[in-house]
Write a structure and sequence with these properties.
The complex is a heterodimer of chains A (257) and B (610).
Chain A lengths: L4 H19 L3 H25 L6 H24 L8 H23 L15 H21 L11 E8 L6 E9 L4 E9 L5 E8 L4 E7 L8 E9 L2 E13 L6
Antiparallel strand pairs in A: 1-2, 2-5, 3-4, 3-6, 6-7
Helix pairs in contact in A: 1-2, 1-4, 2-3, 2-4
Chain B lengths: L1 H7 L2 H11 L3 H24 L7 H18 L6 H22 L9 H14 L17 H13 L3 H28 L2 H11 L14 H21 L5 H16 L3 H20 L8 H17 L3 H22 L21 H29 L3 H17 L8 H26 L6 H23 L11 E4 L2 E4 L1 H12 L4 E3 L2 H8 L5 E3 L6 H4 L9 H7 L4 E5 L27 H7 L4 E5 L3 E5 L5
Parallel strand pairs in B: 3-4, 3-5
Antiparallel strand pairs in B: 1-2, 5-7, 6-7
Helix pairs in contact in B: 3-4, 3-5, 4-5, 4-9, 4-18, 5-8, 5-9, 6-7, 7-8, 8-9, 8-10, 9-17, 10-11, 10-12, 11-13, 12-13, 12-16, 15-16, 15-17, 15-18, 16-17, 19-20
Classes of the chains: A alpha+beta (257), B mainly alpha (610).
Chain lengths: 257, 610
C-alpha cells in the first residue's frame, strides 16, 4: 500500500486500534479504538478494493463503508464460528478485522496501480457563530442524555423488599437468607428463621437503606427422620404484626437439601 | 397591498443580516435537534418520576427535531453535502429519541431476546445457542455476531454495544435511502424530502430501532437496493464493482433476518422483471436474484429450519383472519386498540385524528406524485416498483381491521413505505412548486410533514408507552430498580443458567439482564398456568418434564405485557393491577419451596418439595 496515503493510514489505524482494543483496560478507550476497527476501517478498505481505480463521491463512499463494515461483522462472525474451540473472541475478532482491512487495502493498492495524487484538502472554515452553535448543540444533546440517564425520584412508585433463601453451596448445615431493600426510604425489619416445626427460631434485626442488601448465614439442624421445613419470615418494624415476606425450603436428611 | 406584504416579509435586508451574522442553516438545525431532544428527555424524565405529564412536550420535541430539517430538505438551492449531512442528522436525532427513552436497559419486547443471544455468543464464543423464548432467532445470528464483536472488542455489555450498533444501522438506513432516491429520481432535493417522509412510517421512531434483527437487516437491504440502482446506470467498467456490496450485503441479510431476506429476493425479482419491460439495456440482474434466492433457501435448509414453523402460522392466521373479517364472520378490529391484557390508557381522540390525517395527507401526496412518476419515470424499474409498493401500502392498511392480520400489515409497511415515500415526495414537491400562494403552500408542507411523522409514531406504538416509565429511580440518595429488574439481577447473581417459567415481561428480564433461561407465553401452557387460581394436576409434571427448575408467580397483570410490564407499579395507573392472591398461593399449597419473595413476585422451586 506504499504510496497510497489513505490505504496506508487505514492499515496502520487498523493495527493500532486492534492493539488498543486488546490491551487497553478502559472501556471508553477500547470503544474509541474498536468502533473504527469493527465498522469503518474494514468497510473503507473493502469499498476501496471493489471500486479501485475509481473514486467514489463522499455520499456513496460513506454509505458503502457503513454497509460493508456492518455486513463484514455479520458474515465475519459466521466465519469465526468455524474455528475450533469457539472462535468469537477478542483476539480472533481483532485479527480477522485487521486481516480484512489490510488484505482489502493491499488488493485496492494493486488495482489502483499507481499512487493517487492526494486531493487538495478543503480547509474547514467554521465561523465563530457556527462553532458556538455546534458547541451549544452538543451541550444540549449531552444534557438530554445526562438527564435521561439520571435516575430520578418517583414518589408514587411502589417500593418493595425482596427476601430470598438458598441452601449454602459449600456447607450442608446452613442456609443463606438475603434481604434486599428497594423501598423508597430506610426501613427496619425483623427476620425470623425457623428450621422444623419444633425447631429454634433465629431472630435478626436489621435496618436497610434503599438499594442495600444483607445476607445471613443461618445454621440449621436437619432432622434425621425426614425432610425439615425451613421458613424465613420478614416483618417490618413499623408493622410487626403483619407478615411482610416469607420464603421456605425443605432440607432432606443427610444433605443440605 | 403589495408594498405592505413586501415590507412584512421583510425581509431581504433582515435575511441578509441573519445570513451574515447568524449561524449557518445546518448549525441552526443542529440546535433545533438538540433542543428537541432535550424536550423529549424532559418529557421522559417527568414520566419517569411517576407523574402523568402531558405528552405535548414530547411531541413538541419530535416536531422540533423533524420539521425544520424536513422543511429545509424540501428547499431548492441547498448544496448536496449539506443535504446529505441533514439527512444523517435527521436519522440520528430521531434515533436519539429512543435512546433517551430507554437509557438503562432494553425494555421493548424483542430486545431482551436478542440481547440474550448476544450475551450467549460473548460467553460461549460461538453462534447458534438456543433461545428459549423465540427459538427462530438463534438461526439468524448476524445481529448477535455483530454485537458480540463490539462487546468483545470494547468490554461493553450487550446493551451498550446494541445501542451503538443500531445507531449505526439507523445512520445507514437514512443514508442509503438518500442515495437510492437520488439515483432513481436524479434529484437530491426530492431524495432528502423522501427520506423525511419515510420517517412517517409507523415503525420508524420506535419499532424500527429496537435492538432486534430486522433493525439491522432492513438498513442493509436498502443499501443493497441503492447499490443495485447505482449498478444499473454505472459505466460498463464499474458494473462489477457494485457486485461486491450487493453480494456482501445479501449474505449479511440472509444470516440476519428471515423476512428481510425473503423481501430482498422478491424485490430483486420484481426489479429484474420490471427491467424486462423497459426498452433501455441494463446490466443483467438475474445473477443477483438467483444468488439471493439460493442463499436464502440454503440458509433455511441448513441453519434455520424452524423458520417455516415460526412464520407459517403467523401468515396463515393473518390470511384466515382477513377472510373472516371480510366475510363478516368475525368482527373487525377496532383501531387504536391494544391487545394487552393490562389496563391500557386509550389513545385520545386528538391523537387518533392526527393519525388519520397523516394517512389522508400521505394518500393525497401519493396520488399527486403517482401521475408524475408514472409519466416521467416509469421506464425505470425502481420507479415502477415504488409506485406498486406505494399502492400496496394502502392495501395493507385494510389489514389493520383484521384482528390477527394487523401486525402483518404493520410489519409490511416499513418495506412498502420506501416506495410510498418516494412517490409522495414527488407529490409534495409538485404541491410546493412556485406559483400563487407559494409561501402558504410551503407552510402547509411543513405542517403536513409534522402530521405524517407524528401520526406515524402514534400509529406504530401504544399511546401510553410512548414515554418512559419508572424503571430505575433514586430513593434516599441511592438507586433502586423495578421489581422485575430486581428479580432479574437476583437470578443473574444467584441462579444463573437455570430454567424458569414466567410471565412475558419477567421472562424477558430473566433472559437479559438476568442471563438465565426462561420460557413464557404459550410455551408449556405458561400463559394458562400462571393466572389460574388452582392447579389441575397436569401443570407441574409438564414443567418438570421440560426441565423447568423454577416458576415465577407474578400478581401484576402488567407482567403478561412485554411492553408495559417491566416498570415500578404506580398506583392509579391501572384500575385493578393485581391478579387474585390465589394465583400465587396455588403453588404454596402443593407445597413448593418459596425461594424468592418480593411482594408481587414469588419464585417457587419446582424441585424443592417435602
Amino acid at each position: 500500500v506504499r504510496g497510497h496515503r489513505d490505504l496506508r493510514r487505514t492499515c496502520v489505524a487498523a493495527i493500532a486500534c486492534a492493539l488498543v482494543a486488546i490491551l487497553a483496560p478502559w472501556e471508553l478507550v477500547r470503544l474509541i479504538a474498536a468502533l473504527p476497527l469493527a465498522v469503518f476501517l474494514p468497510g473503507y478498505a473493502i469499498v476501496s478494493a471493489a471500486f479501485a481505480p475509481y473514486r467514489l463521491d463522499p455520499q456513496r463512499l460513506l454509505m458503502l463503508t457503513l454497509a460493508c463494515g456492518l455486513s463484514t461483522l455479520c458474515v465475519g462472525g459466521l466465519l469465526l464460528d468455524f474455528l475450533p474451540g469457539g472462535g468469537l473472541r477478542t483476539g480472533t475478532w481483532a485479527v480477522l478485522l485487521v486481516l480484512v482491512t489490510v488484505g482489502a487495502a493491499r488488493f485496492a493498492a494493486l488495482r489502483r496501480s499507481r499512487p493517487r495524487k492526494p486531493k487538495p484538502r478543503r480547509r474547514l472554515r467554521l465561523r465563530p457563530v457556527d462553532a458556538l452553535g455546534v458547541v451549544l448543540a452538543a451541550a444540549l444533546a449531552i444534557g438530554a442524555l445526562a438527564l435521561a440517564s439520571t435516575p430520578l425520584p418517583a414518589e408514587n412508585a411502589v417500593g418493595y423488599t425482596a427476601l430470598w433463601l438458598l441452601p449454602e453451596q459449600e456447607a450442608t448445615d446452613s442456609i443463606e437468607v438475603g434481604v434486599t431493600s428497594a423501598e423508597q426510604g430506610p426501613q427496619e425489619y425483623r427476620l425470623r428463621v425457623r428450621a422444623g416445626e419444633e425447631g429454634n427460631v433465629e431472630s435478626y434485626r436489621l435496618a436497610l437503606d434503599p438499594g442495600e442488601e444483607r445476607v445471613f448465614r443461618v445454621p440449621v439442624e436437619v432432622e434425621a427422620s425426614g425432610p425439615t421445613r425451613v421458613a424465613a419470615s420478614l416483618y417490618r418494624e413499623d408493622d410487626p404484626g403483619a407478615l411482610y415476606r416469607r420464603v421456605t425450603t425443605w432440607l432432606q436428611p443427610g444433605e443440605g437439601r | 397591498m403589495r408594498a405592505v406584504k413586501t415590507k412584512a416579509f421583510g425581509a431581504p435586508e433582515a435575511r441578509r443580516r441573519l445570513a451574515a451574522h447568524g449561524p449557518s442553516p445546518l448549525v441552526a438545525l443542529l440546535l433545533c435537534s438538540g433542543f428537541g431532544l432535550l424536550l423529549c428527555a424532559w418529557a421522559n424524565a417527568l414520566s419517569r418520576e411517576g407523574g402523568d405529564p402531558t405528552q405535548l412536550l414530547y411531541w413538541a420535541g419530535i416536531l422540533l427535531i423533524a420539521v425544520p430539517t424536513g422543511y429545509r430538505l424540501s428547499l431548492r438551492d441547498v448544496p448536496l453535502r449539506e443535504r446529505f449531512a441533514m439527512v444523517a442528522l435527521f436519522g440520528l436525532a430521531l434515533y436519539a429519541v429512543k435512546v433517551v427513552r430507554d437509557p438503562f436497559l432494553f425494555t421493548f419486547a424483542d430486545e431482551p431476546i436478542h440481547a440474550y443471544n448476544a450475551e450467549q455468543v460473548a460467553r460461549h464464543h460461538d453462534l447458534f445457542h438456543e433461545n428459549p423464548i423465540l427459538p427462530v432467532t438463534s438461526g439468524y445470528p448476524g445481529l448477535a455476531a455483530a454485537t458480540s464483536a463490539l462487546m468483545s472488542l470494547t468490554g461493553m455489555s450487550s446493551f451498550g454495544a446494541g445501542v451503538i450498533l443500531i445507531g449505526l444501522a439507523r445512520l445507514l438506513l437514512v443514508l442509503s435511502l438518500f442515495v437510492l432516491f437520488t439515483r432513481v429520481s436524479g434529484s437530491h432535493r426530492l431524495a432528502g424530502l423522501a427520506v423525511a417522509i419515510y420517517a412517517g412510517s409507523s415503525n420508524f421512531l420506535y419499532w424500527g430501532v429496537q435492538y432486534s434483527y430486522e433493525s439491522l437487516s432492513l438498513p442493509i437491504l436498502v443499501a443493497v437496493l441503492a447499490a443495485f440502482a447505482e449498478r444499473e446506470v454505472a459505466a460498463p467498467a464499474r458494473v462489477r464493482s457494485w457486485a461486491v456490496p450487493i453480494v456482501l450485503g445479501t449474505l449479511a441479510i440472509v444470516i440476519t433476518h428471515h423476512l428481510t431476506s425473503y423481501a430482498l429476493v422478491v424485490i430483486l425479482l420484481a426489479l429484474a422483471l420490471a427491467g424486462r419491460l423497459s426498452r433501455k439495456p441494463r446490466p443483467n440482474p438475474w445473477p443477483f436474484v438467483i444468488f439471493a434466492a439460493a442463499a436464502s433457501l440454503a440458509w433455511l435448509l441448513i441453519a434455520a429450519g424452524s423458520t417455516v414453523g415460526y412464520l407459517s402460522p403467523v401468515l396463515e392466521e393473518a390470511f384466515t383472519s382477513t377472510l373472516h373479517t371480510v366475510s363478516g364472520e368475525a368482527a373487525p378490529r377496532a383501531l387504536f386498540q391494544s391487545s394487552s391484557t393490562a389496563a391500557v390508557t386509550e389513545t385520545p381522540w386528538l391523537a387518533r385524528l392526527v393519525t388519520l390525517a397523516a394517512v389522508g395527507v400521505i394518500g393525497l401526496a401519493f396520488l399527486l406524485g403517482f401521475r408524475r412518476v408514472w409519466k416521467r419515470r416509469r421506464e425505470l424499474p425502481f420507479a415502477l416498483i415504488f409506485c406498486v409498493s406505494g399502492a400496496a401500502f394502502f392495501a395493507t392498511l385494510a389489514l389493520r381491521f383484521a384482528p390477527k392480520a394487523w401486525e402483518t400489515g404493520n410489519r409490511a409497511s416499513e418495506f412498502l413505505f420506501i416506495g410510498l415515500s418516494f412517490v409522495a415526495a414527488y407529490g409534495a414537491l409538485r404541491f410546493v412548486r412556485r406559483g400563487p400562494r407559494w409561501r402558504e403552500r410551503k407552510a402547509a408542507l411543513a405542517a403536513a410533514l409534522g402530521t405524517v411523522i407524528v401520526g406515524g409514531a402514534i400509529a406504530g406504538w401504544p399511546w401510553d408507552a410512548q414515554l418512559a416509565q419508572p424503571l430505575r429511580i433514586s430513593a434516599g440518595g441511592r438507586e433502586i430498580e423495578s421489581e422485575p429488574v430486581g428479580l432479574a439481577r437476583w437470578v443473574g447473581e444467584y441462579l444463573p443458567r437455570r430454567k424458569f417459567a414466567a410471565a412475558d415481561a419477567d421472562a424477558r428480564m430473566i433472559l437479559a439482564p438476568g442471563g438465565a433461561r426462561a420460557k413464557t407465553g404459550d410455551a408449556l401452557a405458561i400463559k394458562t398456568i400462571l393466572p389460574e387460581e388452582a392447579l389441575g394436576g397436569w401443570e407441574l409434571p409438564l414443567l418438570h418434564d421440560h426441565h423447568v427448575g423454577y416458576i415465577v408467580a407474578d400478581r401484576r397483570r402488567a407482567a403478561t405485557d412485554a411492553v408495559r410490564g417491566n416498570f415500578f407499579l404506580v398506583p392509579g395507573s391501572e384500575e385493578d393491577p393485581l391478579l387474585p392472591i390465589e394465583a400465587m398461593h396455588k403453588f404454596s399449597e402443593v407445597p413448593l419451596g418459596r425461594t424468592y419473595d418480593s411482594g408481587s413476585i414469588v419464585v417457587f422451586d419446582l424441585g424443592d418439595r417435602p
